Write a sequence for this structure.
């Protein structure tokens, strides 16, 4: 009888119970982890679809930050003369554009993922959290390609990394969590109000100018630094520059404000997403 009981335990472990919503939603992150293979499958699918029948192909991941860097260099180094703390402006700007481009790509894809994959939502059961997570994970391919361009530029300018670069994965993780936290809110709201996706490009442009992408965060007056830290991407960009470039000011005490904002937004977004999840199939 022992083998029968063991088999029964295995069957129960892999059985999914679909129940009607009741009371406060539970996150059920364990179920998302058990379906992590779907995250990878959807991420790979999005990458193939994005570059299929594209003339430049995956090199767009290099072209976009590279062209933006050239424009920023011409304007902010040649005309405005922004302070870069002795770093070459192309390096200064690209160190910010690499995480910024990933962030914008991740939230853009994740915001529309529920509407784009409405056939999956209405026909197949799986944790809906898989969709925004796969969109955020899929964007990492573009990040690493753009980061390779940044490494090449570091070699050209003879900027040798220090031990600070060992902390770069923590800032990358913080970037991923920031993108995921915002994506959970935007994707769930976009199911009900489709104009969220239309307003996103304008929102991204505004957020870029209030983030230290083209200028140093040290140019913000001290009295506004606490308010400025409410934007987590300011901490992300400061962290990337500090870890990769010399003589860059490191993240200060105000970075803890950014961490708190992301954690609150992330857990709040998880519960909000789960609360709205049962309505997705009917509304989408």
């Amino acid at each position: 009888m022992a083998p029968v009981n063991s088999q029964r335990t295995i069957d129960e472990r892999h059985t999914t119970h679909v129940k009607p919503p009741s009371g406060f939603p539970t996150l059920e992150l364990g179920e998302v982890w058990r379906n992590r293979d779907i995250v990878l499958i959807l991420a790979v699918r999005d990458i193939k679809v994005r570059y299929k029948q594209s003339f430049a192909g995956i090199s767009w991941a290099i072209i976009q930050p590279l062209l933006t860097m050239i424009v920023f260099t011409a304007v902010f180094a040649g005309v405005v003369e922004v302070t870069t703390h002795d770093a070459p402006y192309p390096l200064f700007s690209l160190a910010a554009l690499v995480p910024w481009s990933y962030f914008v790509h991740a939230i853009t894809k994740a915001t529309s993922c529920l509407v784009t994959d409405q056939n999956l939502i209405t026909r197949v059961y799986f944790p809906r959290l898989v969709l925004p997570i796969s969109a955020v994970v899929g964007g990492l391919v573009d990040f690493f390609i753009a980061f390779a361009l940044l490494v090449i530029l570091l070699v050209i300018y003879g900027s040798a990394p220090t031990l600070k670069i060992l902390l770069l994965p923590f800032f990358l993780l913080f970037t991923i969590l920031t993108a995921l936290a915002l994506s959970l809110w935007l994707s769930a709201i976009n199911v009900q109000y489709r104009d969220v996706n239309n307003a996103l490009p304008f929102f991204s442009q505004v957020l870029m100018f209030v983030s230290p992408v083209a200028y140093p965060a040290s140019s913000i007056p001290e009295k506004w630094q606490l308010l400025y830290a409410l934007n987590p991407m300011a901490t992300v960009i400061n962290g990337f520059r500090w870890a990769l470039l010399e003589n860059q000011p490191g993240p200060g005490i105000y970075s803890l404000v950014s961490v708190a904002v992301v954690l609150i937004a992330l857990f709040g977004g998880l519960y909000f997403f789960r609360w709205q999840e049962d309505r997705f199939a009917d509304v989408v």
Confidence is low (pLDDT under 50) at residues 1-13.
